[in-house]
Specification:
five-stranded mixed β-sheet, five-stranded parallel β-sheet
Length: 529
């Protein structure tokens, strides 16, 4: 039993003893199916706190012959599989947490030397009979073991891309690092399985043959392991039932990562924290690099700022993810930035339409905080969002019209052409503050048609529900009448004692003295006698 060669199961034991633990052991069924075949190379890329290290620790505990893990797995789903006993603690495992080595060294040469030295020290203890040709070369040493003993190895490499994610890493160092892994793993007879985890997919090099043996599982392409990329809907529902949490509240805060095969996943970090604390708020974003988000969305790529504003307004944006070279330091277009943000978890990806979107309330907070510190005109809208929301609650029609007018002027990408443009402005203006109190729906079907915007209070919230109807070149009173005539509030009847109807309009006639003037009418819902 060692630290890197045939480790113990202590990490997974600790995880298994946690009060909230979701059984993801059927991942092992898949990894068992690719042992010793051509497809035995697997790279799983997903955002921080989405369970990467947890899965790696589980695989170590299952395969490593340096421990007995039967008591950890006998009550899990994998125990019912026919190959369960065959592979349980019966393999040589080399486990590398690359981030730990990276933090201890100041350059790639030192990293690779330290890694080789530490692993070789344990190899020589386990295989004292092997005659090593060069103990400073890990690949040659493993070849010597295989040729003399026929022993093979399972490689589990966590945070494999930490060096590549660092914007200060040079291209030369990245190439040297990738070449080391390529030589260590590719076409080697001693490799039974490689399971790597990271945030970014494998970096694209001009040499298409470099490090090209992996099946990559990403937030853009998750087949066949989508259900292991986070907590599934059913798993979250079961946890909510077990711990007496309102699933609808959890869903409104953390849902939004939709993968292929109709699989939706949640950030495990967010769900565990919300259930443990009996409170929904931003948890996952606290673990990520806020300064990096500001840096990425403030890049000077044409159209990127406009797309960020549209995303914040609840719209989806087209992207071409194929141009991204899977390198956080090489960003050549807004498509590259938006694709990077998908891999980091800041954006969801609609794989059918090649569009991105902000997935949920928790992530909205990240964008709101980032934009509020940037020198954008839109930053003023975000800072004044709470004032706009409070003016609405207070039914201050003049203030609401003023805030919306200023927001429309500051949101330069939005033309004065139709209600859809105004809806985008209003979403942008309201979302930063309303995100904490409401689920906002555009054109939610109610009554005899569609309301433009519906603000549905969060569970346990005492704030009023809000129905907003938008008009141009008409009065806000006409908008209110349309809400009432068509009963747009039909689905909100349980809020009948706490429901605001809001009509907002603006003048788009350039020949009018009131050109670009905004108006507002707010009334409380009153049930007909």
């Amino acid at each position: 039993m060692g630290t890197y060669l045939n480790p113990d199961n202590n990490d997974f034991t600790t995880l298994k003893q946690s009060p909230i633990c979701v059984d993801k052991s059927l991942l092992i069924k898949y990894t068992n199916s690719i042992l010793n075949i051509k497809e035995r190379f697997l790279c799983v890329a997903r955002p921080r706190r989405f369970g990467k290290s947890t899965d790696a620790q589980m695989l170590v505990a299952y395969y490593s012959n340096g421990c007995d893990s039967s008591s950890l797995f006998n009550d899990l789903k994998i125990a019912e599989d026919e190959d369960y006993q065959k592979h349980l603690n019966s393999h040589n495992v080399i486990f590398i947490n690359m981030l730990k080595f990276y933090k201890r060294t100041n350059n790639v040469n030192s990293l690779l030397q330290l890694l080789t030295h530490k692993i070789m020290k344990e190899i020589k203890d386990v295989f004292p009979e092997v005659d090593f040709w060069d103990e400073n070369d890990l690949s040659f040493s493993l070849e010597d073991i295989y040729s003399q003993t026929k022993n093979k190895f399972i490689f589990i490499i966590d945070e494999w891309d930490c060096l590549l994610r660092n914007k200060n890493s040079t291209e030369e160092n990245k190439v040297k690092f990738i070449n080391f892994l390529d030589i260590l793993l590719k076409d080697q007879p001693y490799v039974e399985l490689v399971y790597m985890t990271g945030i970014l997919p494998i970096k694209k090099f001009d040499d298409q043959s470099t490090f090209n043996m992996f099946n990559e599982i990403t937030m853009l392409s998750s087949i066949p392991l989508g259900e292991y990329m986070g907590f599934t809907v059913d798993e979250v529902k079961d946890l909510c039932k077990q711990y007496h949490m309102d699933y609808n509240e959890i869903q409104s805060w953390y849902d939004g990562y939709h993968l292929e095969n109709n699989i939706s996943i949640y950030s495990p970090r967010s769900i565990v924290q919300a259930i443990s604390n009996k409170s929904c708020k931003s948890y996952w974003v606290d673990t990520s690099n806020f300064e990096d988000l500001k840096l990425y969305i403030n890049t000077n790529f044409n159209g990127l700022k406009d797309d960020i504003v549209s995303l914040l307004a609840g719209k989806k944006v087209n992207i071409n993810p194929k141009t991204f070279r899977n390198d956080a330091a090489i960003l050549n277009s807004k498509d590259d930035v938006l694709t990077l943000l998908v891999h980091f978890g800041y954006l969801g990806f609609d794989y059918e339409d090649n569009k991105v979107y902000i997935p949920n309330k928790e992530v909205v907070d990240s964008f709101v905080n980032a934009i509020s510190e940037l020198p954008w005109n839109e930053a003023r809208i975000i800072k004044e969002s709470k004032d706009l929301l409070e003016a609405t609650w207070n039914m201050n029609e003049e203030k609401v019209a003023q805030y919306i007018e200023e927001a429309h002027q500051d949101t330069s990408i939005i033309a004065y052409n139709d209600e859809n443009a105004l809806a985008c402005v209003i979403n942008t203006a309201y979302v930063p503050a309303a995100n904490n109190y409401y689920t906002i729906s555009r054109e939610m079907p109610t009554g005899k048609g569609y309301a433009d915007l519906i603000f549905i209070p969060a569970p346990r919230s005492h704030k009023p529900a809000i129905v907003i109807e938008l008009k141009w070149n008409q009065t806000p009173e006409i908008a209110i009448n349309q809400i009432q005539d068509r009963k747009y509030y039909a689905s909100l009847k349980h809020y009948k004692d706490n429901l605001l109807l809001v009509g907002i309009s603006y003048n788009k006639d350039p020949n009018s003295k009131d050109y670009k003037k905004h108006y507002c009418k707010i009334t409380k819902y009153k049930e007909n006698p």
